[in-house]
Amino acid sequence: MDDVLASCLTTLRDIKASKQDYAIRSIIAIGPFSIMHLNSNNLTTSPYNVNEPFQNPNFTLEQVQFIYKEFANEYELTIDQEVIEDIYIQTNGHAVLVCLCGCVIYRKLLPEIGLHLSYNSWQRFATFLLGNAILEYPMFMRMKDALLNENSVDAMKLFRSDFLANFDPVLVTENKRNLALFLTAEGVLVPGDNDGTFKISSPLVRWMVLQQIIPHVFLTSPKIDVPYHPSTGTLDIFEVLKQVICVFDREIIKFRNSFKLARVLVSNANNREVPRESVYDAELYRVMSNWLNRFTVTGQWHLKYRAGGHINNKYVDIVISRPDHPTIALELLATPTKKELKEYYERALLYDKKLPADETWVVNFTCCEDAISEPYWPTESQLQKGLRVVYFWHDLDFTKISVIACWLDTNNNTRHVTDVESW
């Protein structure tokens, strides 16, 4: 490969050196950002004297709507407007991903659904199958292979620590800039507006990396058998969660590169930096994917529900499923206030019926001082409607953890609160 590159660059350099003999006056290279750093071990100079990128802008929502209107007209389809909006959100308007979603719809969905693509059909497909379908295309197969290569471990460490739980632009230090450029060349990151900054290219790419790359590069799982309820043979999700939290990467949790300011008392102070929900989400997904290998563990189940006269979007964090097993949904919170918890419990019941889940857990990760001693539980009525809640408190260094949970005891139809466990 280096010989081919050297030959190409040598030819271009010869053309440049003998401009009077050629009609070519300039060359524009089109491709990923890696073309900014074309070089060869056999060459000491580059044929280029201008090295300036022009990033192709992403599609706007209106452009995506136009493309899918043309697509629907071509094949006499009806596509729900919510489907197109979700494609735009998940792809961030990236032209290739927008078009690939259309290809996947044509190849994978149309034979099953006929001439109407409803939002519910798209939702189920996007959650469980879209990422795998896109990875069948050569450019994304190459991306997957490149990220799984042992030489890419340092780049994946950077992605995991700085970008996986953070959708904002991140300033990358000079000594790690080449790692960020590699991830940019593979389509995982894009340059930010300010020099030296980068950010995740789209939610869909993040989800594909989280699902297909992170669990294979960072292998972690509890050293015990997966716990099941002896009476029903179903997952004991409370015990599963306790075991999974024990093997969280402490450095990732306390790194605080992705944080929010707590609006509750933490370590005797207000406005302390605490991890965002996305930090716990990524760790929970990573460990569960490795440990629950008999199940499909996925996330980003997009729900729309109406409340207060408005249409709201909600992404359920993790869904655990298997054809012969009840589906379990986990919805995460990060150091909320009691007011936020109250609103969340009420809101959860609004969209709980929309979930294809038999068991739903609200998992509250918190650094709040009195979270365990004075927990705020759902009402009896809310528990009777199926809400299950577990609190995981931890200190800012993630060296101390306590857990308490609450659900409805179906034997006597009363609230059951577990004892506090600490480690």
Key features of this structure:
alpha+beta; 3 domains; Transcriptional regulator
SS class: alpha+beta
Q: How many structural units, i.e. domains?
A: 3
Poorly predicted tracts of residues = none
Mean of pLDDT = 86
Number of helices: 16
Measured by DSSP, the beta-strand proportion falls in 15-25%
* Gyration radius over CA: 25 Å
Shape: globular
Query: What level of helicity do the residues show?
Result: 40-55%
How far the N terminus sits from the C terminus, by CA atoms, comes to 54 Å
State the total count of DSSP E strands.
Answer: 15
Give a quick account of the main beta sheet: strands, pairing sense, barrel closure.
8 strands, mixed
Protein name: Transcriptional regulator
Structure at a glance:
This protein is α+β, with helices and mostly antiparallel strands. Helix content is about 40%, strand content about 20%. It has 16 helices and 15 strands.
